[in-house]
Amino acid sequence: MTNFKNIDYLKSGNKRQKEAYLLLKTLKIFESLKKYNPILVGTFPIEIDIPESDLDIICQFEDQDEFSQKLVEIFGKNESFSLNSKYFNGILSIIAKFDAGNFKIEIFGQNIPTEDQNAYKHMLIENKVLLEKGKEFKAAIVNLKQKGLKTEAAFSELLGLVGDPYKAMLNI
What we know:
CATH architecture: 2-Layer Sandwich
CATH topology: Beta Polymerase, domain 2
Low-confidence stretches: none
Mean pLDDT: 95
Largest sheet: 5 strands, mixed
Shape: globular
Number of helices: 7
């Protein structure tokens, strides 16, 4: 089982994973955000990314203002930088977005341990399903994503899940 809490697995991954690893290391994103327990989640770690996919990094903060200030301090000089706060399932979330190299990067923080955040849980479940279902299933997921479906919606469709795909995935 891959240790997704350490991005070293990207070094031996596919071409885009290797490129992402080099960029993340060059920018020292994980070192800069170490205090916030960052984890790369989403499509890149489980090799179902498409060209439009971004590098999603989740973090845990205790003080939203301090976390926001840190993001501005580290990444705010980037032309494409944006910082927003939003509520997801009633939980305040801080979201920073910017472009770096050939990638779009999104840093998502909540006052919840990263291992307990839905993005991490979804990725672990999706990885398990991909390992069980094999290459054809993975190709079908990527195909649906290329047609515009979000990751959870693509899994829900292929698995025949009903209701909200984000909630349905957590019940697998």
